Amino acid sequence: MSPTPNPYVATQLRQLIYYHLDNDFVQNALFLAGRLHGQEPRNPDAAHLLALCHLRLGRLKAAYDYSREKGFRGQHMGCAYVFAQACLGLGRFPEGITALDRARGHWGGRNHWNKHSETARRHLPDAAAVNCLLGKLWRAHGDVHKAIACYAEALKLNPFMWDAFLDLCETGAVIRPTNVFKMSPEMSALLSASSAVPDSPPANALNAASNGVFTPTQDLFNPGRPENVQRNAGGLFAKFNAIATNGNGQQVLDVETPVGNGGAYDEDVMMGEAGGAPMNRAPSAEPPHAPARRSRQVPSMTDSGVEVPRMKSITTRSRVRSGTDSSDHAEPVKSSMVGAQKRTVSGNMAHASTSAGNPASQPRRSHRLMQSVQDHIRPSGGRSMTSGKSAETQEREKRELRRARLPTAAKSSRAGTSAVGRVISGNRKPIEPAERDMKETRSQSALAGNITSAAPPKQQQSAAAIEVAKEREALQSLLDLFCKLGNAYYLLSRYSSESAWEEFNSLPAAQRETPWVLAQMGRAQYEQARYSDAADLFEKVKRIAPSRMEDMEVYSTVLWHLKGETDLAYLAHELIESDRLSPQAWCAIGNSFSLQREHDQAVKCFRRATQLDPKFAYAFTLQGHEHVANEEFDKALLAYRSAIAADSRHYNGWYGLGRVYEKIGKYEVAEKHYKNAHHINPRNPVLLVCIGVVLERMRKPQAALLQYNEACRLDSRSALARFKKARVLMNLRKTRMALEELEILKDLAPDEANVHFMLGKLYKMMRDKTSAIRHFTIALNLDPKAAQYIKEAMESLEDDEDDEYDDDDGA
C-alpha cells in the first residue's frame, strides 16, 4: 500500500514553479509542473500550471491538451484562460470563445486595476483581460461587431488596456479617444479604496522587503512595529507566527494558507471559484486558498484539558509559504512574540508576562526555540541573549528600564554585554565597543522617536488625503498622455496622416523620441508619400533601437521608393542578422531584390515572410506586386486575395486587385476594387486617380474629372492627379483650364518631359506655334528616347486636324 502523499509537497512545488516562472526559467518551471501534475493528477491547479508553462514556451498544442478538460467546460478560470489563448494561436476560435463564456462566473465583475505592484499581483485575469482576449477571438473568427463590443467593455473597465485600443482602431470602429482615456467613477472609487485599506503596503514597503528582516536598521523589539517582521515572510521570526495571542489572552490562529504566487490582497480565493464558492478539490490537495491572512479564534484548551502553549513550535502550516509570499503584508497580530518582549537598556531581551493575571507563567515556546536557534548560530566564544545573566541581573535591568533616561540608557548599554545585534543581523564578527555604542544609541533614539512621533488621527487623515490627491493627479497626467497617443494612433488608423503626425509631434520630447512614436510618425509621412522625411524618421528609430523589427517593412518600402539600393541592402543585412525568423527582415530582402529587378528572387523572399507569419498581409501584397511585374496575373490575384483574407482593411490588397483587373481589361471590376480601397483609405489621392483612369477608359470623362478634382483637393502637390486632370480637360476641349493645371504642374515637376510635351500639344490646339515648338524642344532635350514621338508632333504643327477646338471655358 502506497503511503498517503503529503499535501504540502504540492505547495512547495507551486512555490518553485512560480519562482522559476517569475525568473523566466520556463523549462525549469515546466519540469516542476510535471512533478506537480504527477503528484496531483486530478487537481485543476496542477493542470493549469502545466498548460501555462507550455504556453509560455510557445507549445500551443500541448497547452491546449492539458487545459482542455477543465478549461473548455469553464470549471477552472486558469485553465479556461490558457485554453482560450492556445485556441487563438491554433485557429480554434469558437472553442476559445465557448470556454471563456462558460467561465464567466469566475471573471465577470472582477476588476484588478490598481491592485498590481511589486509586492502584490494577480495570477488570474480580471474582466478587462478576458474581454480583450474575447475581442481577439471574435475578430479572428470574423465577427467584428462582437469584437468591438468586447474591446469596448475591456477599455471601459481598464482604459490602459492599450492592446484592446489598438485592435479596436484596426477594426475601423469610430472612436472618441477622449471618452476612452478618462477618469471613470469606478477608477476614482478604486483609487480611494486602495488608499484607505489599513493593511496596504506603505510607500517604503519595497525598501523594507529588499532590506530583509535581519538588518540593524529594523528594530525587531519595538512593540509598536510588529508588522515589520510579518511582512518579511522569508525571515526567521515569521516562521514562529502561526499561533499568537490576542489582547484578551486568547489564542489566535493566523490562517496563512499558501496561494500560489498571489499577494496578501488577492481576491482569487481559488482559481476555480465561481461567485465565491470554491470548487471541489482532490482529497490530497492543500487546504482552500484564503483571500488574505485572517485571524480566527481557537479554543485555548485542548481536548485533554491541558492549556495549549502560547506559541507553537515551527509547524508545517507556518513553514508553508507561497512563491512570492514574502511580499504579503498581513494585518499585524495584536500580541506577537516580538510584541511581548521588552528591550533592556543594554539591548538584551527581558521577558514580559504573557498574561496580566499570571506573572509567573513561563516564556513562550517560540521564544525558547528562538534562543536555541540563536545558540547554534552565534559564534564560538560569544554570548547568548540571556544565558549569561542571572535572574537577579535580569530583574535589576527591568527596574533600570522603567526609570532610566536616554543618557543613562546609553551609559548602561556600554556596560552591558549584548549579543542581540550580532545574532539577529547575522554578523559573526565581534563588534568593537565604540561601534556597538553608536549602534545602540541610534537604536534607542529610534525607539524614543517611535514612541513620541505618533501623529494624531486628523493629521494621518490629512496625509492620506494628500497622498490620494497626488495619486489622482499622477493618474490624470497618465490618462492625458494616453489620450494624446490614442488620438494620434486613431487618426493614423483612419489615414488622417497629417493630423496624426501633428498629434505625435505635439507629445513631450521624452515620449516623442521613443522608437514606437518615431515609427508611427514615419508611417504617417510614408502614407503622404513624403519618403525622404519618412526615411529620416526610420533612420532615427534604427539608431535608438537597432534590434527593432516592427515597421521595418515600411522602412524598406520607403527606401525602395527612394531608389536607395545601397541603403536598402544594408538594412536587409542588419535585419536578417538580428532575427532570421522575422517576416520584416524577409520583406526587406525581397524589396532589395525587387529594386534590382530580380523579381523571382523577390517573390521567394516574400513567400518566406508569409510562411513565417500567415497573417502578415503586407508580405502578400508585395508578393502580388512582383507577380504583376512578371505579368503573372493569376498568381498576383491569389496573392492579393490572401492579403485581404489576412486583413480585410488592408487597402493595398484591394488596390492590387483593381490594378490586375485594370490590366486585363475588366474595368468595372477594377473600379469596384479601387472603390473598396478608397472606402478604407479615403484620403489617398492615388486611389482617386486610379478610379479616374478606369472611368476614362470606360468613356466617362466627366466622372473621371470629379475624381481628379477630389485628388487635387486632398493633395495640391500631387503631380499625377494634376497631369490626369489636365489631360481630361484637353479631351473636353477646356483648354484654358487645362493650361492652368499644366502651368502649376510645370512648377511642380519642371524636369518632367511629359509635362512639356502636353504643353506643346495644348499650344498647338490653341494655334500658338511658337510656344508649342519651344515646349516640344524642351521635352526632346529632357527625354531623347522619345524623340520619334516628339518629332512627329512637331511636324504635324501645320496640319489642320486639331485646329478645331472650343475656346469656351464654360462647362
Automatic annotation (TrEMBL):
Compositional bias annotation for Basic and acidic residues: 429-442
Keywords: Nucleus, Repeat, TPR repeat
Segments of skewed composition (Polar residues): 313-325, 343-374, 443-452
Chain positions of TPR repeats: 128-161, 515-548, 583-616, 617-650, 651-684, 753-786
Location relative to the cell: Nucleus
Transmembrane segments: none
Keyword Amino-acid biosynthesis recorded: no
GO cellular component: anaphase-promoting complex; cytoplasm
InterPro entries linked to this entry: TPR-like_helical_dom_sf, TPR_rpt
Gene Ontology process terms (BP): anaphase-promoting complex-dependent catabolic process; cell division; metaphase/anaphase transition of mitotic cell cycle; protein ubiquitination
Pfam families: ANAPC3, TPR_1, TPR_16, TPR_8
Spans annotated as Disordered: 269-458
Annotated family: Belongs to the APC3/CDC27 family.
Protein name: Protein bima
Organism for this UniProt entry: Diplodia corticola
